[in-house]
C-alpha cells in the first residue's frame, strides 16, 4: 500500500481582464494569478479494489463523481489504463480549509493535487507541462494550480507565463460562508451586460493579451512593490458581481476604508474579497476591525500571505 499527502493552496486574482468571448463559449482572458498559503490537504491512499472514493469534511462539497478530485483521478485512469490496472483504485481524502465556491480555485487546486499525487503513486514521471495539459481538461484554473506562484495567465486561463516569486505579502480575506457565486453565471452576465466582444482577428487578440505582459501591474510585481500592485489591481467581473451582491460590495467598501489597507479586490468570480496590507500585525488589526463592524457568524475571515509554490508534497 502506498500513500501521499499533498498541500493544495488557494489562489487570488491580482488582475482579471476580459478581452473577448470565444467561439467555444469561454472568454479570452488576461489575468495575474497568485497562490496564497490558505490551503486544503489531500491524502491519497492506494486501495485494493478498482474503486476511486472521495471523502471530504465539508458538507457542501460533493463526494461523488462530480467532485473535481474524483474527476482528476478518473481522467488519469482513462489516460493511463495500464497503470490503473496495475495499481488499482484509491481513497482520496479532502481536508477542506479553502472556502467553497469562493473564487479561490478550491476545487481546481484539489484536482491539481490529485494529478500530482497520482503521477507519484503510479511512477508516471510526467513533466510539469504534461500535468498542466491534463489539468486544462478539468478546468481553466487547474493548470495554474499545479505549480502556482505568481503567473500571467492568458487564453481561457491555461496559458501560463510565470513572473517573479512574490512571497509574504500579507492578505486579509473575507467570504460569507453561505454566499456562493457561480462562475458560469458571472461570465454569462458580463457578456449580457457588455455585449459580445468576439475578436476575429487573432493578431489583435495576441496583441491585447500580450499588453498585460508590459502592463503597470507586472512592473510593480517585478519590483515587489505591494503598494503599487495594490493600486494597479483590477477585476472586470466586479462590474457584474458587485451590483448583484450588495454584501460583497459592502465588504469591498469596508476594506477600502480601513487604515493600513493598501488595496482591495474581489477574487475571480467572487464572492471572496481580499485586502493587501502592510504587515502581518496590520492584517490582524484589520481582521479584528472587520469582525467588529460585521459581527455576523456567517462571515469567514482569514489572515493569509502570498506564496511562491503550487502543489507541495507533504509525505
Ligand atoms: C474566475 C476564474 O476563477 C479566474 O481565475 C476562472 O476564470 C474560472 O476558472 P474555473 O472555475 O476553473 O473555470 P471552468 O471550470 O473552466 O469554467 C467554469 C465556467 O466559467 C466560464 N468561463 C471560464 C473561464 C473562461 N476563460 N471563460 C469562461 O467563460 C464558462 O462559462 C465555464 O462554464
Ligand atoms: N474538490 C472540490 N472542492 C470544492 N468544491 C468542489 C470540489 N469538487 C466539486 N466542487 C463543486 O464545485 C463548486 C465550485 O467550488 P470551488 O470551491 O471550486 O469554486 P471556486 O473557488 O469559485 O473556483 P474557481 O475560482 O476556480 O472558479 C462547488 O459548489 C462544489 O459543489
UniProtKB/TrEMBL annotation:
Annotated GHMP kinase C-terminal domain residues: 218-293
Binding-site positions, ATP: 99-109
Active site: 11, 141
Organism domain of life: Bacteria
GO biological process terms on file: isopentenyl diphosphate biosynthetic process, methylerythritol 4-phosphate pathway; terpenoid biosynthetic process
Catalytic activity: 4-CDP-2-C-methyl-D-erythritol + ATP = 4-CDP-2-C-methyl-D-erythritol 2-phosphate + ADP + H(+)
Pathway recorded for this protein: Isoprenoid biosynthesis; isopentenyl diphosphate biosynthesis via DXP pathway; isopentenyl diphosphate from 1-deoxy-D-xylulose 5-phosphate: step 3/6
Enzyme Commission (EC) number: 2.7.1.148
InterPro entries: GHMP_kinase_C_dom, GHMP_kinase_C_sf, GHMP_kinase_N_dom, IspE, Ribosomal_Su5_D2-typ_SF, Ribsml_uS5_D2-typ_fold_subgr
Keywords recorded for this protein, A-Z: ATP-binding, Isoprene biosynthesis, Kinase, Nucleotide-binding, Transferase
Molecular function terms, GO-annotated: 4-(cytidine 5'-diphospho)-2-C-methyl-D-erythritol kinase activity; ATP binding
Occurrences of domain GHMP kinase N-terminal (ranges): 67-149
Family from the record: Belongs to the GHMP kinase family. IspE subfamily.
HAMAP family membership: IspE
UniProt function note: Catalyzes the phosphorylation of the position 2 hydroxy group of 4-diphosphocytidyl-2C-methyl-D-erythritol.
Name this protein carries in UniProt: 4-diphosphocytidyl-2-C-methyl-D-erythritol kinase
Amino acid at each position: 500500500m502506498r500513500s501521499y499527502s499533498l498541500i493544495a493552496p488557494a489562489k487570488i486574482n491580482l488582475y482579471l481582464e476580459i478581452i473577448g468571448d470565444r467561439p467555444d463559449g469561454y472568454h479570452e482572458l488576461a489575468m495575474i494569478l497568485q497562490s496564497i498559503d490558505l490551503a486544503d490537504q489531500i491524502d491519497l491512499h492506494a486501495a485494493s479494489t478498482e474503486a476511486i472514493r472521495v471523502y471530504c469534511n465539508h458538507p457542501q462539497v460533493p463526494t461523488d463523481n462530480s467532485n473535481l478530485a474524483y474527476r482528476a483521478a478518473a481522467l488519469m485512469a482513462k489516460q493511463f489504463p495500464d497503470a490503473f490496472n496495475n495499481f488499482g483504485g484509491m481513497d482520496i481524502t479532502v481536508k477542506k480549509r479553502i472556502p467553497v465556491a469562493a473564487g479561490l480555485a478550491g476545487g481546481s487546486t484539489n484536482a491539481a493535487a490529485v494529478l500530482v499525487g497520482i503521477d507519484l503513486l503510479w511512477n508516471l514521471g510526467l513533466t510539469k507541462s504534461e500535468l498542466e495539459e491534463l489539468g486544462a481538461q478539468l478546468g481553466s484554473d487547474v493548470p495554474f494550480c499545479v505549480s502556482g506562484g505568481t503567473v500571467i495567465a492568458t487564453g481561457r486561463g491555461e496559458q501560463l507565463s510565470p513572473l517573479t516569486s512574490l512571497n509574504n505579502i500579507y492578505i486579509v480575506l473575507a467570504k460569507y460562508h453561505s454566499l456562493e457565486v457561480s462562475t458560469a453565471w458571472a461570465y454569462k452576465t458580463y457578456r449580457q451586460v457588455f455585449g459580445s466582444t468576439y475578436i476575429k482577428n487573432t493578431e489583435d487578440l495576441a496583441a491585447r493579451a500580450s499588453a498585460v505582459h508590459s502592463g503597470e501591474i507586472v512592473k510593480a510585481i517585478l519590483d515587489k512593490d505591494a503598494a503599487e500592485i495594490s493600486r494597479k489591481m483590477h477585476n472586470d467581473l466586479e462590474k457584474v458581481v458587485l451590483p448583484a451582491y450588495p454584501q460583497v460590495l459592502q465588504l469591498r467598501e469596508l476594506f477600502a476604508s480601513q487604515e493600513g489597507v493598501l488595496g482591495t479586490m474581489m477574487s475571480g468570480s467572487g464572492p471572496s474579497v481580499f485586502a493587501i496590507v502592510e504587515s502581518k500585525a496590520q492584517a490582524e488589526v484589520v481582521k479584528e476591525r472587520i469582525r467588529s463592524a460585521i459581527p455576523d457568524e456567517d462571515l469567514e475571515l482569514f489572515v493569509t500571505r502570498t506564496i511562491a509554490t503550487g502543489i507541495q508534497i507533504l509525505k
